[in-house]
Amino acid sequence: EVQLLESGGGLVQPGGSLRLSCAVSGFGVNTFSMAWVRQAPGKGLEWVSAIGGNVPKTYYAASVKGRFSISRDNSKNTLYLQLDSLRVEDTAFYYCAKDRLTSMTPSWLFDVWGRGTLVTVSS
Amino acid sequence: DIQMTQSPSSLSASVGDRVTITCRASQGIDNFLAWFQQQPGKAPKSLIFAASRLQSDVPSRFTGSGSGTDFTLTINSLQPEDFATYYCQQYYNYPPTFGQGTRLEI
Question: Which of A16, A93, B35, B77 is the most exposed place for a label (fewest CB within 10 A)?
Fold first, then answer.
């Protein structure tokens, strides 16, 4: 069964850092492109970052570029999102999502989502 | 970036009703349009992709249509579990963008 399980969220002060993890089961984390999507409390969905399948080309939303970094560890079958220089407006549930197609380039179509992990940035 | 606009923002209905949600793209996206359902406190669930193709586990009372800039999601014979928030998303190009959501409530 395909499953995604996020962890690593928590309360952090503005300017701080966190590393989110997404444990993948049911497929290889490098088989598909993978993405992070966030949702501020009571708000809509915002795509944050993605990494290509097999080829580790990375993509970032303008709002996080230069502050967030996506990566994966194939041996642990885990996707990561490093969050640095956090701002209050980064407060959100962060979901990892699997791309529907097995291609090196993301199709931007997400078919499986994790349950999310909450990041709260506050002083 | 392509802007996705959904209407209405919220919708009241009853079990057994038929409802329609619309999604408009700021530029043509062919049929690269997906719909997601999100129950309170849960992750989004993929319902439809390519504007009208149902994911394998989605009931047939859900139908999607449209192409270009205008799309619709119709739910026939509403069931209690259908009361949720629905989002459209374009995957025509990078970056992928979502509509603001439509809350379907009793």
Answer: B77
Q: Do B46 and A110 touch (CB under 8 A)?
A: yes
Tens digit of pLDDT for each residue in A75-104? 999 999 999 999 999 999 999 999 998 877
Give Cβ neighbours of residue A75 (< 8 Å, ≥ 6 apart).
none
- pLDDT in the model for residue A105: 84
Report how far residue B44's alpha carbon sits from residue B64's, in angstroms, rounded to the nearest whole number: 17
Average pLDDT over residues A23-49: 95
A68-73 β-sheet, strand order: A3-7, A18-25, A78-83, A68-73
Nearest CA in chain B to A61: B95
Which residues in chain B land under pLDDT 70?
Answer: none
Tokens of B20: 């329609």
* Amino acid letter, residue A110: F
Which of B3, B30, B94 should be substituted to probe chain A, the one whose Cβ sees the most A Cβ atoms within 10 Å?
B94
Mean pLDDT calculated for residue range A96-113: 90
CA distance B20 to A92: 29
